Amino acid sequence: xxxxxxxxxxxxxxxxxxxxxxxxxxxxxxxxxxxxxxxxxxxxxxxxxxxxxxxxxxxxxxxxxxxxxxxxxxxxxxxxxxxxxxxxxxxxxxxxxxxxxxxxxxxxxxxxxxxxxxxxxxxxxxxxxxxxxxxxxxxxxxxxxxxxxxxxxxxxxxxxxxxxxxxxxxxxxxxxxxxxxxxxxxxxxxxxxxxxxxxxxxxxxxxxxxxxxxxxxx
Length: 218
Prior knowledge:
Layout: H1 14-18, H2 23-37, E1 44-48, H3 54-61, E2 65-70, E3 79-80, E4 94-100, H4 111-121, E5 122-130, E6 134-140, E7 149-155, H5 185-192, E8 196-203, E9 210-217
């Protein structure tokens, strides 16, 4: 039996990745700000996995109190550690915890503990997750205000299974993704509902590899 991997840093060239800034970073930051603004009484944020730091800059620009948290000191987090253990923070220390394209880097053995910790330290959470495979989108914007129609089709090898020790899904070491066996949207939602009330769940039509959950801790 293969040993259970422990949470660790991504195997890719993190220094080079830290310098990258793509359209997806701006799209992701916009949706995070939009979703946070929809929640009442939010001031204190914990950003897990700050990456290149664009999200943090945007939130601070809008007046939020932001703490960053990461297992990798490459990204200069305020606090260093793994999201499955937030013991340095007290209950409800934050209004919102944001984990955007972070939890898939966590071995499955630690996933439920991480969700429990996020629910413990915050009133709300944004959990954005990658969708497996390649994505084809048909989008129609007829020119009428607020009317934007989008249909997305995902194409991937459903029979590919993760081996988090020797065969991660990609160089970024995804142990799981939405759409992989056992991780349909319905099953992911069911897992989240053990710790949260799902306020909203949607496919990001401007960044199709992302499925976004807006959550309230229970």
